[in-house]
Design goal:
The chain is α/β, with parallel strands linked by helices. The chain has three domains: about 1-120, Rossmann fold (3-Layer(aba) Sandwich); about 120-250, Response regulator (Rossmann fold, 3-Layer(aba) Sandwich), CATH 3.40.50; about 260-400, 2-Layer Sandwich (Alpha-Beta Plaits), CATH 3.30.70. The protein has 13 helices and 15 strands. The protein has helices at about 10-25, 35-45, 60-70, 105-120, 130-140, 155-165, 180-190, 205-215, 230-255, 265-280, 300-315, 340-355, 385-400, and strands at about 1-5, 30-35, 50-55, 75-80, 95-100, 120-125, 145-150, 170, 200, 220-225, 260, 285-295, 325, 330-335, 370-380. The strands form three sheets. A five-stranded parallel sheet has the order 2-1-3-4-5, with helices on both faces. Strands 7-6-8-9-10 form a five-stranded parallel sheet, sandwiched between helices. Strands 11-13-14-12-15 form a five-stranded mixed sheet, sandwiched between helices. β3 (about 50-55), α3 and β4 form a beta-alpha-beta unit. The mean pLDDT is about 75.
Length: about 400
């Protein structure tokens, strides 16, 4: 993500720039400019987010319109306490309107940008004929960059979940058929309550019905009529909880040095990947990569430098949805979805090239030499035991090679 801060260039604005750079690794670049005229050139270069430190009345409307056409998001950071003027600019994709507080200005800005980045691509599966709910979600949830995907029947819900990365699901009790509970139970076989929160909207429900839905796997029930603030808070809290749970779980599953998943996740996520491969009737490939340390001493610092670099290279070289796991002290396993051996070879060559072009450097900027030995196996079977057998076979062949 590339960000432009439109503000008077002084110690405060430089402090905010440094705060965002230091605390948000997803930001690739931050430009600090004095005014909208100077910012316009960066808008033409398709920068992703503009933070405008001004009163809303003072923002150049032509600049806002141009950003809107380019689908650039804007955060307004202002002294004005009245938030009502923002409604006039809702069509301009202003994602937040921050009222300054002299004690916590920087923290408010930091948390807002973090939430925007986290929630910038939210897909909500919507199974309801209540257009008020849809409007409130689109206009008032914490990130306005939301895609609402509508389903017309329970079968279509399952199809959408199989083909889209859905963050949350909205279900209206009024249009659920008698097998609504069965549908939710079926979803819960594949998605935990943390992976896919489900919010149920309803008028009055009897206690035994509420108990059945909660037992089946509904995260929350919100009753009609509801207050707008109640709706917004529930959805934002649900997304926050989901992100915190995901972060905590990710930390538990990842190796602390390389940042790669631990080997155990192959069993954790492998079944779901195999179901996808079977449904789409496409193969997937396994790459086993061994690190070859090219220094004679047994320096732990050098090895950790190499392992960290290796993890960064793998993480930046693969597609979203591919699985990378560290295996032992000096190996990694990569599972590539919908990828035959020919395409897997392209991935292997890309990784080798990146390691050659961007070498591992120690704290003094000196190169710590290492190379890799990758082996590839295409897998068409959709049985997890077969995948594990293929991995064992690759490891055996790799050990034969090293001897």
């Amino acid at each position: 993500m590339r960000v432009v801060i439109v503000d008077r260039i002084d110690s405060n604005s430089k402090k905010n720039k440094n705060l965002l750079e230091t605390n948000i690794p997803d930001i690739e670049e931050i430009i600090l400019v004095n005014n909208e005229i100077d910012a316009l050139s960066y808008a033409r270069l398709d920068y992703d987010l503009f933070i405008v430190n001004t009163a809303i009345d003072g923002v150049d409307i032509d600049f806002l319109n141009y950003c809107n056409q380019k689908e650039i998001k804007i955060i307004v950071f202002t002294d004005i306490q009245d938030q009502s003027p923002i409604d006039e600019y809702s069509h301009l994709k202003i994602i937040d309107y921050i009222i300054k507080n002299k004690y916590i200005n920087s923290n408010i800005l930091l948390e807002t940008v973090k939430k925007y980045i986290r929630n910038s691509d939210i897909k909500i599966l919507f199974f309801s004929n209540d257009m008020q709910i849809k409007t409130e979600l689109k206009n008032h949830i914490i990130s306005q960059n939301i895609e609402i995907i509508e389903a017309n029947n329970p079968d279509e819900i399952i199809t959408i979940l199989n083909n889209e990365e859905i963050e949350m699901m909205v279900v209206d009790y009024d249009i659920l058929s008698q097998d609504g509970l069965d549908m939710i139970a079926k979803i819960r076989l594949d998605y935990s309550m943390d992976e896919l929160p489900i919010i149920l909207f309803a008028y009055f429900l009897r206690n035994h019905i509420i108990a059945e839905f909660l037992r089946t796997g509904i995260n929350n029930i919100i009753y009609k009529p509801y207050l707008k603030e109640e709706l917004i808070n529930l959805f934002n809290l649900t997304l926050d909880k989901k992100e915190l749970t995901k972060d905590s779980y990710e930390w538990f599953l990842r190796d602390t040095i390389t940042g790669l998943y631990r080997y155990q996740v192959i069993e954790e996520f492998g079944e779901k990947m195999l179901r996808n491969a079977k449904r789409e009737n496409k193969p997937f490939s396994i790459i086993l990569i061994k690190i070859i340390f090219e220094f004679r001493d047994n320096s732990k610092i050098k090895k950790n430098t190499v392992l960290k670099h290796f993890g960064n290279i793998l993480g930046s070289s693969l597609r979203r949805g591919d699985l990378i796991a560290k295996y032992g002290l000096d190996k990694a396993v990569i599972i590539l979805q919908n990828t035959d051996e020919k395409k897997a070879n392209l991935v292997k060559n890309k990784i080798k090239k990146h390691i050659e072009i961007f070498p591992a450097l120690n704290e003094d900027g000196q190169i710590v030499p290492y190379s890799i030995h990758p082996m590839i196996e295409e897998v068409s079977d959709t049985n997890l035991n077969t995948v594990v057998d293929k991995l064992d076979e690759l490891i055996y062949r790799e050990n034969m090679f090293s001897n």
